[in-house]
Specification:
This protein is 39% helix and 15% strand. It contains eight helices and twelve strands. Strand 8, helix 3 and strand 9 form a beta-alpha-beta unit. The chain starts with 14 loop residues before the first strand and ends with a helix.
Length: 326
Amino acid sequence: MEEKRRKEISEEDIIMEGNIWTDEKGKKYRYVDPMTDKGFKLLFGTEGNEELLTNLLNSIIPGSRIMNLSYSNSEHLGLTEDDDKAIFDVYCEDEDGVRFLLEMQNWSQHYFNKRAVYYSTYAIQDQAAKEKRHQQKTLGKRNWDYNYAPVYVVCFLSFDMKKTPEELVRVKQDEYLSFYRYVDIETKEELEDGSTLVFVEMNKFRKSLQECDNGKEKWLCSIKNMNSQLEVPEGISGTELEELYSKGEIAALPKSKRINYISYIMSRNDELNSREEQIADARAEGRAEGIRFSIRKMLDAGIESDTVADILGVGMEEVERLSDNG
């Protein structure tokens, strides 16, 4: 989900010391944050980073042997002129025509699982439109035979899933990684259209890099934690993950992308801080209202004012004010 507002900054507003960026509050960063949609797109949706994305997908999808990926336009028109546009973080296909939609989702959504199913239909329609044109032009056919290539919707979530789509059945699950396909509920026989929903619940992945047992876990650990690191962790050099850190350096980004990314992060931090303040204010008001309610109840029960103040840990003036107001 893109931000609604953006800080306007220039290169002079960015405080860099070597390859380290320091934000307004003095916090230091070396790498972009893949756990934001902007950072995720920079790393996995940018021309020239196809191999990086290929390695990520091959690491988390069992049996995957993707060889070559090419990016497609991530913005697709809806079914009719009245439909909203569907914008994915990353949309690509491999040499066999298999489509991959990837998204980094930070805000919980009640029907997010159904949204993922809905998103998969865009990649199917995209194939239909292209195949119809191809068959009409080369084969003289008027109708498409519906033989579409598999579609993978891969969703990285910073929240826990609430509900599984009823029409899908889980065919594999780790604590943090789940795959869903259309299968017969009783026999578990797959429909074999190849469509797969992949949910990566990052909150449930808690291993340190030293605790990771395989490449999949190291990828997820790096994606989750690289934004808080100022050096390439031990054990990364010489592996395919070295490219992730290399391409993720803020200082290495082209000037326009560096300004755009830091502007995004500053606006996002402002929004998060504002939300936290609103939540804290609401909680404080709730606690204050709860104390006022308790004071009234205790006074109505005939408890002396000084006893009420002592029990609730409030000042006598607050108790007396409520007592005077009835």
